[in-house]
Amino acid sequence: MRKPIYILALIAIFLLGQDWSARAAEYIIVVHKDNPVQRLGIEEARNIFLGKQLRWPDNSSITLVMNTNDDIHEKFTRELLEKSPVQLSVYWKKILYSGSGILPLAVRDDEAAKSYVALHRHAISYIDKNSLDHQVKKVAIE
Prior knowledge:
Elements: H1 2-16, E1 27-32, E2 39-40, H2 42-49, E3 63-67, H3 70-79, H4 85-98, E4 105-107, H5 110-119, E5 123-128, E6 136-141
Parallel strand pairs: 2-6, 3-4, 3-5
Antiparallel strand pairs: 1-5, 1-6
Organism: Desulfurivibrio alkaliphilus
Protein name: PBP domain-containing protein
């Protein structure tokens, strides 16, 4: 009877000692390299990704690009927007069906997000921090 308890205790110690945060995806917000925006306040970033702020400081229209990669989208939605992915989907559908806006562009992964942002000066998206390369520019969130 002691052996199963001993094994369970060892498993628990092993699992508690793991650094699970190191495995979790971490997102960054990216824009076109020529976009003059260097940083966004957290509320400003929320307002952009919730369609409440529609224009950049130079009065050009913001193009939202939602990265639907499961890990990144989940983390981004919960941390920055303080919603679940389902709540965000319902939120955007209400905007669409009320006639007060259109759905943001949805892309399947980091590469598609970077490609779109790299080609469209007024676009903004989010990607895994490890996917950042020369195609796009990271925006600091304060």
